[in-house]
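Run log, item B.
One chain of 296 residues. Sequence copied directly from the ordering sheet:
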Amino acid sequence: MADLIHLLVEFAAVMGLDRLWQRRGEELVVTCVVLFVAAVLQRLAQRRAQGFNDHDLGRAFAVRARNAVVAGVALILLLAWGSDLKSLAVSVAALGAAAVLAMREVIVCALGGVYRVLTSAYQVGDIIEVTVGSELVGEVVDIDLMHTELIERTPAGHATTTRLRFPNSVLLTSAVRKQGRTGELGVRTLRVPVAPDAMDLGRAEAALMAAASEVCAPFADEAERHLARRRQVELVGLPSHRLRVALVAEKPNEVALVLRYPCPAGQHVALEREILLGYYRGLHPEGTQAVTSNPH
């Protein structure tokens, strides 16, 4: 053991590590302690996140904890090594312009990440739509300073196992549509084409209202309370959750019934299916009974 220690001391002397320790011993100790504490905190945060019953809340907690730990480590190391970094900055001032040009995309992505934080554009668990060459739709599962990661959702609203990553620089040039957190109540519209020459428009409107009322009844009151709270917090005149049907002219002899209805975020596909099934059952009860009695 003594021989091993003696060998390590000689190796440190040859490499100049002893002089480094004499000049920057305190900074090295602080750096090691900070990195160790950061690793422990990250591990504890990960375990805490795994204990959440709601996976979305746990994932959001883990992402916020990781970003806070990274920011804290960067700040402490900046304070500890500030004088050395200042000297380094002076020595590389001539390369500053070239570095900015070379890291332009990185800087723009970082600015997009800062913009997202300042504007609260979206959080982990939100369902968003963003255009990056093509339209990307998905649930936000991870955010860092440079990128945002989504779990893809198909046009039919079904989640897949595909993960999509886009640079935060997109936020500076493209609009982001936020549907809200999974399950968060909002208001959506459903367009149902009708042929005025082939059916009674009043009967079609009544059937659509009846189907929507039945499907949306379980969460209609909660939707109104949720929107009332958002009006008070955001000071925005959000629409009522109450069902409305508008008759919109499409083309000559073609119209559409446009239904406005409350909907939890991410569940509009299933709700619209139930509404349409109820609507067609109301219009053609005899056909529905025939199909039900003879499913084959």
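Observations after the first pass:
- The beta strands are 126-132, 134-143, 147-153, 159-167, 176-181, 185-194, 244-251, 254-264.
- Residues 115-181 form a domain with the SH3 type barrels. fold (CATH 2.30.30.60).
Flagged for discussion on Thursday.
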